[in-house]
Amino acid sequence: MDEIKKFAVIGIPIKHSLSPKIHKEFAKQHGLKIQYKMIEPDSEEHFETHTQSFFSKKGYGANITIPFKEKAFLFADIHDESTIECGCANTLISQENKIKSFNTDGEGFINDLTIKKIELLNKKILVIGAGGSARSIINSLIKNNIDKIDILSKTKERVDLLVDKYKDKSNIFNYEDGSSYDLVINTTPVSLTNEEINFPTNIFNKISISYDLFYSKNITNFQTWSKNNGATKAYDGLGMLIEQAALSYRIWNSFEPSTKDLKNKLGF
């Protein structure tokens, strides 16, 4: 009898996650038997305990979501280049009694922009937030030769670290009042709560596209806010979720799943 491979997604909150359904669809394409569960530690301090427990019980691979991407990088024994570059991980794999970290967020994001035919050349870009997801996105944007990226975050120290980190590779700046952008990317969890969004309302121009890393069956809070304040198009992050998941699945199983029509299969 074939052994069932064990996978998980670890985050807070996690009950909304589509990752189990996505990876089970990939496994169907592959003809692989998998178990994929959701793990939600009761606090941020317990990430390591839960993750260690999962891998000690023959867990093979894990997806990591907010707020644990930086902790996942520190948890791993070995790191691929993508995680070293941004200091955070969204994919872990157990190999030869070692945990290796990867980050598929940035490449998944770029892949989704390509599918949506969103051009990056000569675009002025704003990234909202400066946490692990923002670092992944910025790292991939820089690899695509973006001329100018601004960062808007209430945590100025994190922005300063990013500006300093990439000062030799790209023009990265702290957001300045009154600036507007062609592409606005939200990496903060504002769409997971019902709190009022307090970002500057004049960040959009006449051709602005907004992209929320979060997703919902309904339009997300950030999508609604973007449209109300002048964005011509407002996307959620389901496409990115699917594309980064496909990259994770390939890392774990040496199989490249198709992402075509997956949104329909997920009921979107």
Structure description:
The structure is a single chain. The chain is of the alpha/beta class. It has 2 domains: 99 residues, 3-Layer(aba) Sandwich (Rossmann fold); 134 residues, Rossmann fold (3-Layer(aba) Sandwich), CATH 3.40.50.720. The chain is built from 10 helices and 12 strands. Helix 7 links the parallel strand 8 and strand 9. It is globular.
Largest sheet: 6 strands, mixed
Question: Regions with pLDDT < 50 over 5+ consecutive residues?
Answer: none
At CATH level 2, the architecture of the largest domain is: 3-Layer(aba) Sandwich
Count of spatially separate domains: 2
Distance between the termini: 35 Å
Sequence-ordered SSE layout with sheet pairings:
Elements: E1 5-10, H1 19-30, E2 34-39, H2 47-56, E3 59-64, H3 69-75, E4 78-79, H4 81-86, E5 91-95, E6 98-102, H5 105-115, E7 124-128, H6 132-143, E8 148-152, H7 156-165, E9 171-174, E10 181-186, E11 204-212, H8 221-228, E12 233-235, H9 238-253, H10 262-265
Parallel strand pairs: 1-2, 1-3, 4-6, 7-8, 7-10, 8-9, 10-11, 11-12
Antiparallel strand pairs: 3-5, 5-6
Helix pairs in contact: 1-9, 5-6, 5-9
Highlighted features:
36% helix; Rossmann fold; 10 helices; alpha/beta; 12 strands; six-stranded mixed sheet; six-stranded parallel sheet; 268 residues
In short:
This protein is of the alpha/beta class and 268 residues long.
